[in-house]
Amino acid sequence: KQITGGVIAVAAFGLVLLYWEHQTTYQAEQATESLAHATDSTSLQAVIRDFPKLPVAAEAWARLGDLYYRNGRYPEAASAYQSLMKDFPSHPLAVSSKIGLAAVLEAEGKIDDAKAQYLQIINSDPSGYSANAARMGLARCLEIQGQKKEARQLYEELLAGGQNSPWFEKAYLRMVVLNRDVALEKADQPS
């Protein structure tokens, strides 16, 4: 009798575990499908609301922040990026959200705050992919503040990464513009 009861208990536990795994898989599939069809702020917010603890919510926060940013809704973009960082601090998109937040500050004209954010990203992982994105942002901020020598130095660092770097072309184009501007400034100065 005890053996039969034990077998029944183990079988029941196995069935419960199997059912729970099936439900978890089904919910993950449903969440992924919802995110795949989310194209506007309302549908992205629905993904976040319906699946707040799943990784798709982090992806929805990131896409929502980017959507708001592209539409010039900077406070909402900043809020979305901050929510991602708070709710999913170890998710790979949390670092991207830091860059997004710095870009928001830059777009709002808060250049010193943007520079501080970009520097924090660079200092946290100097050789990481996000560090190069932050270097581009920092160089733009330095240009805006008239610190062209410092901006040029950052662009040169990005160029040193080689032509296979995704930042090479952008850094190269900014260097061309900076060099042109310097040449024009020298030509405008009286001899």
Describe this structure in words.
The chain is mainly alpha-helical and 191 residues long. It contains nine helices and no strands. It has helices spanning 2-37, 41-50, 55-70, 74-87, 93-107, 111-124, 129-144, 148-159, 168-188. The longest helix is centred in the first third of the chain and has 36 residues, at 2-37. It is elongated.
Give a brief outline of the structure.
By secondary structure, the protein is mostly helical.
Question: Mind sketching the topology for me?
Answer:
Elements: H1 2-37, H2 41-50, H3 55-70, H4 74-87, H5 93-107, H6 111-124, H7 129-144, H8 148-159, H9 168-188
Detail the poorly predicted runs.
Answer: none
What best-fitting shape do the alpha-carbon axes yield? elongated
Number of strands: 0
- Integer average pLDDT: 86
- Beta-strand content bin: under 5%
Q: Could you estimate the helical fraction of the residues in percent? A: over 70%
Beginning-to-end CA distance, first to last residue: 107 Å
How many helices? The count is 9
Computed structural class: mainly alpha
What are its keywords?
191 residues; mainly alpha; 81% helix; 0% strand
